[in-house]
Design goal:
The protein has 566 residues and is mainly β. It folds into four domains: 148 residues, no CATH class; 160 residues, Neuraminidase; 131 residues, no CATH class; 102 residues. 5% of the residues lie in helices and 36% in strands. It has four helices and 41 strands. Strands 10-11-12-13-14-15-16 form a seven-stranded antiparallel sheet, with no helix packed on it. The protein has a six-stranded mixed sheet with strand order 35-34-36-38-40-41, with helices on one face. Strands 3-7-6-5-4 form a five-stranded antiparallel sheet, with no helix packed on it. Strand 23 and strand 24 form a beta hairpin. The longest helix is centred in the N-terminal third of the chain and has 10 residues. The chain starts with a helix and ends with a strand.
């Protein structure tokens, strides 16, 4: 027992000052047993555990943050307010062979930015979209809101889906606390080390070491690793040999194993007194992973009721990659049953004082599995700057990959590849004359029928809306899109815009100029421009002036608005 206590205290050496008073008090009263939550038991059941760890044993009471409960929505999968999230981004939609609708998206909670504690929501409908049942296959929960600095919280982001029969594969990217922010970018490496010929996830008990790449030759920085999973749990083992008292589940929440079961370790939510369970991706937990990206895959054989999880880094990420991440959207199942998931790589550390932007070394690629996701191989990225991409299978069984591309002004570009049985080889890159903006990923589908005996590929590449100095690719302006934006002064709507949603610009009281380049505008939602600058200028083509005046009538514009011909 004394040896166990000494080992636990050694693991807490970096927190010793902070918790010295607490540990001293506990050691004076060795018979004190904390209240804990034992998996499979009742709340507040007493369990005999080492009191030296009293501060960290989970007391998961009503105030504790738990994964949001499953729920039901009507008519749409991610309505505003679903599970408490006001914003959802990066939606993925597919239809299973039996007609079941499947969706996933980022739950961005109270903000729309990349990172900052987003989680992955999943929703399924068996009645053609009338009723949806949602859940959270990937959830961290270490942040309370967007006021918490992004440099302190962990993130799940960018879902990708593949379905085959009744099986669903859901991919996403996990960023440890603070990674994927303006303060810290993913470091180069996989986060894994070779232990006895097997690649193992390395762990450190000192968060200050989490920026250091794990090395097989240096045991002191990452003295622990995760062992084999059995029934959803794996032990945390010492690289010098021997076990600890700690285990993780498949998404790396941390537990202590006691005679009564697995006990979840606790910590406080970032900048909050709310109690949450510890996780190896959190800043304040006992153990920490290396600060790089981790490509997660979840598999469900019962349409999302239960999931099993795997990190694919040791199979597909290389030691020279800072990032190997999903290209959000749909993967595909080839005619021969091979699973293909789009990814992109960033082979260098890339920091920019102005925030998160693309590196010129980004490369589009994909991973594939011939055994239903048990093992994966990687097709290395193409030789030109590119990142997010979508892939279709051609009739000659070649694969065609369309990708975001920023050369020569940005064009829709693609490249073909075909397997020779041993692997894939890229062919020559092709660039069309159709413009595409790197701010928006493409969506690509192979149409289910031929037209004139030829295969048809459908590509979604939105039209242009310019707000300030930023150009976005969209086909319509969504309802509430810029509602109450106090900084918006000028908007240019591109030539493909057909619809402005209700209250899209309501309350934008500084909005003084609206340039409408579109000749296709057909629908304006209720109060779309109510509350903009009273004497705002609306510039339209001469042959559309009267029609657009009538179209905007009753949509919130005052009688002082100035209509101008282009």
């Amino acid at each position: 027992m004394i040896i166990d206590i000494l080992e636990e205290l050694r693991m807490l050496k970096n927190r010793l000052i902070k918790f010295s008073i607490l540990i001293s008090l506990v050691l004076l009263n060795f018979s004190m047993a904390p209240k804990v939550y034992v998996l499979g038991a009742t709340l507040n059941e007493t369990s005999q555990v080492h009191p030296s760890l009293n501060y960290e044993i989970a007391r998961l009471e009503e105030s504790a943050v738990m994964k949001p409960a499953d729920g039901i929505t009507k008519d749409q999968p991610f309505a505003v307010g679903t599970a408490g999230s006001e914003y959802f981004r990066i939606p993925v939609f597919t239809v299973m062979q039996d007609g079941t609708y499947v969706c996933a998206a980022d739950a961005r909670w109270d903000h729309t930015r990349d990172g900052g504690g987003s989680d992955i929501i999943f929703s399924i409908s068996k009645d053609e979209g009338k009723t949806w049942t949602y859940s959270f296959p990937f959830y961290f929960g270490d942040s309370a809101n967007s006021k918490i600095p992004f440099s302190e919280v962990a993130t799940f982001i960018d879902p990708e889906l593949i379905t085959k029969g009744n099986t669903i594969w859901l991919f996403t990217n996990a960023y440890p606390a603070g990674v994927m922010s303006e303060q810290k970018f993913p470091a180069v490496g996989t986060g894994y080390i070779n232990v006895g010929g097997i690649m193992r996830l390395a762990l450190t008990d000192n968060y200050e070491n989490a920026d250091k790449n794990p090395k097989e030759s240096d045991i002191s920085v990452y003295p622990y690793y995760v062992g084999d999973f059995d029934n959803g749990y794996a032990p945390i083992l010492k690289r010098l040999g021997g076990a600890t008292a700690y285990w993780v589940d498949e998404v790396y929440h941390i537990y202590k194993k006691t005679p009564d079961g697995f006990v979840k370790l606790e910590q406080k939510q970032v900048n909050s007194d709310v109690i949450i369970g510890q996780n190896c991706f959190f800043r304040d937990s006992m153990f920490h992973v290396y600060n790089t990206t981790y490509l997660f895959m979840a598999r469900s054989d019962d349409k999302g009721k239960t999931w099993t999880y795997k990190v694919l880094n040791p199979q597909v990420k290389s030691d020279g990659d800072a990032q190997l991440v999903t290209s959000p959207g749909n993967g595909l199942v080839l005619r021969d049953g091979t699973l293909v998931a789009s990814v992109w790589e960033r082979p260098d550390e890339f920091e920019n004082p102005n925030g998160w932007i693309a590196s010129n070394n980004d490369r589009s690629g994909f991973i594939y599995s011939k055994d239903d996701g048990v093992t994966w191989e990687r097709m290395e990225g193409i030789g030109v700057y590119s990142n997010e991409n979508h892939i279709v299978e051609l009739n000659d069984i070649s694969l065609r990959m369309f990708y975001r591309y920023d050369a020569e002004g940005g064009k829709i570009s693609y490249i073909d590849t075909r397997s020779d049985g041993a692997g894939y080889t890229w062919r020559e890159n092709c660039q069309s004359e159709l413009e595409a903006d790197v701010a928006c990923n493409l969506s690509v589908l192979s149409y289910s029928k031929t037209v004139g005996g030829r295969q048809v590929i459908l590509i979604s590449c939105p039209a242009t809306v310019k707000i300030g100095n930023i150009r976005y690719k969209v086909t319509s302006v969504a309802a509430n899109a810029f509602r109450n934006n106090r900084r918006l002064k000028k908007v240019t709507l591109g030539d493909e815009i057909q619809k402005i949603g209700k209250e899209a610009f309501k309350g934008c009281r500084k909005l003084g100029t609206v340039n409408i380049k579109s000749k296709k505008l057909k629908k304006i939602g209720k109060n779309a421009l109510k509350g903009i600058k009273p004497n705002a200028k609306i510039n339209v083509f001469s042959n559309k002036l009267n029609a657009y005046k009538a179209l905007f009538s009753g949509k919130g514009l005052g009688n002082k608005v100035q209509w101008n011909r282009k």
